[in-house]
Amino acid sequence: MEMSPTDIKRLRLAKELLENPGLAARLTNVIGMPFEKAFDYLPARWTGTIQGIAQKALRQALDVAVTTLDHNDQSSSRDRLHKFLVATSGGIGGAFGLPALSIELPATTVIMFRSIADIARSEGENIQLLETRLACLEVFALGGSSDMDNAAESGYFALRAILSKQVSEASKYIVEKGVVEEGAPVLVRLIATIASRFGATISQKAAASAVPVIGAVGGALINSIFMDHFQNMARGHFIMRRLERRYGMEHVHDRYRTL
Fold first, then answer.
1. DSSP assignments along 20-68, one per residue
2. What is the DSSP code string of 175-222?
3. Is the separation of the CB atoms in 61 and 108 below 8 Å?
4. Cα 202 from Cα 33, distance rounded (Å)
5. What pLDDT tens digit does each residue of the chain (259 aa) get?
6. What does the alpha-carbon distance between residue 46 and residue 162 come to, in Å, rounded to a whole number?
7. Taking a C-beta distance cutoff of 8 angstroms, is the pair 80, 138 a contact?
8. Residue 102, class by beta-carbon neighbours within 10 Å (0-12 exposed, 13-18 middle, 19+ buried)?
9. SS3 244
10. Helix crossing, 79-96 with 101-122: angle to 10°?
């Protein structure tokens, strides 16, 4: 089945969103200095702390975020509402500084997961399906990087391939057990893989938030940009999945690469 002009336009949008996240550049405009200097304000041994916070946030998001979404809702996604909620959370966190991140980020991540699931629903996904919920979780790995990455693992398709087996194993485990057990090895591996990339994005947010002049207003703006980043990743990801359902994965991927 040949792709329609409208769907080619949607595919082009997906590629632009997925391959040009630009988070650091946007945060540079907020903090008013070269972004690399912002990392000087982070405490020593921050990397380990970030990974712990990232994994906690992702576990909470997986547990609770989708349960109150209405699959029968046919409206467009409520991006502005979720962005406002995250901005409010960031404003509160910004008022208390970097130490509040361990409390603010899990709450922010749950709101972000809801927004990602809402975007998935608006792109035709059944958010009651476990497969869709795990696809929502995958979004947190997009637009970030890991110290373990190499050039062959940095693209959108490469990352989906890396996550595919772990997502399949996690899905099978949850279906068989009927619960999401925090210590289950398959879930630990999946969360750790996503957190390694999500943590890199959190580090950028934390570095911007650590600049002394940021405060509550800056914290709200940083969180709004942070949310916008993941909403863009979600929109691109679920446009791809929608087109794959319609035209087949191989055909969509071939057209994506030739754009």
1. ---HHHHHHHHHTS-HHHHGGGSPTTHHHHHHHHHHHHHHHHHHHTTTT
2. HHHSS--TT-HHHHHHHHHHHHHHHHHHHHHHHHHHSTT-HHHHHHHH
3. no
4. 19
5. 789 999 999 999 999 999 876 777 777 776 666 667 777 777 777 767 878 888 888 888 877 655 666 555 555 676 666 565 655 555 544 444 555 666 777 888 888 888 898 899 999 998 888 888 889 999 999 876 555 444 444 588 988 998 998 988 888 888 777 666 666 788 888 888 998 888 888 888 777 777 765 655 566 777 788 888 888 999 999 999 999 999 999 999 999 999 8
6. 26
7. no
8. middle
9. helix
10. 170
Please give the C-alpha separations between residue 213 and each of 50, 88, 203, in angstroms, as whole numbers: 22, 18, 18
The one-letter code for the residue type at 246 is R
CB neighbours of 177 closer than 8 A, spacing ≥ 6?
Answer: 184
Tokens of 239: 């446009």
